[in-house]
Specification:
CATH topology of the largest domain: Rossmann fold
Order of helices and strands: EHEHEHHEHEHEHHHHHHHHHHH
CATH superfamily of the largest domain: P-loop containing nucleotide triphosphate hydrolases
Strand order of the largest sheet: 1-6-2-5-4-3
Distance between the termini: 63 Å
Low-confidence stretches: none
Mean pLDDT: 87
Structural class: alpha/beta
Number of helices: 17
Largest sheet: 6 strands, parallel
Length: 342
């Protein structure tokens, strides 16, 4: 039987112990692995490995010895409780072996859990599980996690009290990060809030989110967009010492001011425009960019983009002007535009 995305999410957290088997397939190996871990943990509990109630069988081993799976589902261990025979990285070459194991399965045998990469609708392995009356097939696709999935991950991490703003930040963060990185971020957040009874806020999410590789660039862009002209020189010296290239700085500044212009130009106002940015911005950074967009205004942001375009053309031309000086002058002009509105 085929599980829809919504049904699969519920089934992974509360699987049925009397089923013959489950196939989990998808192009993203990390997403598949996380779902496999979740469903096996829900089936067997925390001590399955130690109690030898979980048998792992790589598909490569199964191709060499087809009896491995049949033996695993029938074997009885010393410890009571449900058992799982897990076939990893399966493909069409092991379909016949798995078919035989499903046909030979009887109540009381170990449940068969199979993982595979992306499978076409015509795949024999996929059809085997989708057509079986007592087995399931679930496709894992590269879609952002749903709110229910995020809430389940938060609950698993022990995070029960979440402010609305922090939940929005986590939802946006889940869209940016891979599933493994997002899970690690939640674990870090749980440790960060250990012993703290207050709800998780946006500041907590920001403190635990992966650090941006452009933190220093963000510093100078915020200085410029907030009109703090006197601070540009010192931070430019720091960036130059760290090896920041003028062209890279120009590209980063152009991206930042385009985002501000898009927000300021939105028919629904800057708050609506900020919410439409991709990749999304969240937490204190979102509030800061909103203030910048509203403070400078659409017309001045348009002039700022023209200034950056001129600087970019100069940097890419045969001009003998010092490139970092060209970029610094452009940033000072931008800061003066931002300052003029205040």
């Amino acid at each position: 039987m085929k599980l829809t995305a919504r049904d699969a999410g519920r089934y992974f957290s509360k699987p049925e112990t009397n089923r013959t088997g489950l196939l989990i397939f998808g192009a993203d190996a990390m997403r598949v692995a996380l779902k496999r871990q979740e469903v096996i943990a829900a089936l067997l509990g925390p001590n399955a490995e130690e109690e030898m109630r979980l048998t792992r069988i790589p598909a490569s081993d199964l191709r060499k010895d087809g009896a491995l799976l049949g033996d695993a589902i029938k074997a009885q261990g010393f410890f009571p409780g449900p058992r799982v025979a897990f076939v990893e990285d399966a493909n069409e070459t092991v379909t016949k072996t798995i078919t035989a194991a499903l046909q030979d399965w009887a109540p009381g045998d170990a449940q068969i859990v199979v993982t595979a990469s992306a499978l076409k609708a015509s795949s024999g392995l996929r059809k085997l599980f989708e057509g079986h009356p007592n087995a399931y097939a679930a496709g894992i696709y590269d879609n952002p996690p749903t709110r229910d999935e995020i809430e389940a991950d938060l609950k698993a991490a022990g995070l029960m009290q979440i402010e609305q703003g922090a939940m929005t930040d986590l939802t946006n963060l889940a869209r940016e990060l891979g599933p493994g990185d997002f899970r690690q971020t939640l674990e870090k957040l749980a440790l960060y809030k250990l012993g703290d009874s207050t709800p998780v806020g946006s500041e907590d999410v920001l403190a635990c989110a992966p650090s941006s590789t452009e933190a220093d660039l963000d510093d100078v862009l915020n200085i410029v967009a907030e009109g703090r002209t006197s601070e540009i020189g010192p931070v430019m010296q720091k960036l130059k010492a760290q090896g920041m290239q003028p062209v890279g700085l120009c590209i980063g500044a152009t991206r930042h001011f385009r985002q501000l212009y898009a927000a300021a130009s939105d028919p629904g106002g800057a708050p609506a425009g900020i919410g439409k940015l991709r990749p999304p911005v969240y937490g204190p950074r979102r509030d800061r960019m909103l203030r910048q967009a509203q403070g400078i205004g659409r017309d001045r942001l348009e002039r700022a983009l023209e200034t950056l375009l001129d600087a970019d053309l100069t940097l890419r031309s045969t001009s003998k002007s010092p490139q970092m000086a060209v970029m610094e002058r452009a940033l000072i002009r931008l800061a003066m535009l931002a300052q003029a509105r205040r």
